[in-house]
């Protein structure tokens, strides 16, 4: 019997939940959701992460992550910031993205993390139709990483 099976069976008996037919992961998720709904911030983080990453129910996942973040769960805050960045950029205009970039530049991140985030943001920005020259949006951060010279970022047409 695996640890998750044992934990699931113990919780099942303890909470007296009707979970017949759920399977091991279904039982685990039901117990985690029960704990999350009863203000357990670690469970809220785990359920939020599962809903976003595994079942792709982003609204429900964000709900649980926000609950965990409001309880000062550091992993939830970090993950929520990551997803908020992606959500924000897919629903915003260029000016707002430019303003958001200033916050990223001022964030307490090391150089490697900033570069990873920059490249992810650039990929997201390529899909926004009104972007013709993205260098002015990410200019200061791009200069910091010496990638302005890369041909795909030069728009001197």
Low-confidence segments, ≥5 residues, pLDDT <50? 91-95, 128-157
Sheet-strand content, in percent, reads under 5%
Distance between the termini: 64 Å
The percent range for helix content is over 70%
Task: Outline the structure in words.
This protein has 157 residues and is mainly α. The longest helix is centred in the middle third of the chain and has 17 residues. Helix 6 runs parallel beside helix 8. It has a domain of 66 residues. Helices cover 70% and strands 0% of the residues. The protein is elongated.
Topology:
Elements: H1 3-15, H2 23-37, H3 41-53, H4 58-70, H5 74-90, H6 94-106, H7 111-126, H8 135-144
How would you describe this structure in keywords?
single chain; 157 residues; mainly alpha; elongated; 12161_t:CDS:1; TPR-like_helical_dom_sf
What's this model, at a glance?
The protein is 70% helix and 0% strand. By secondary structure, the chain is mainly alpha-helical.
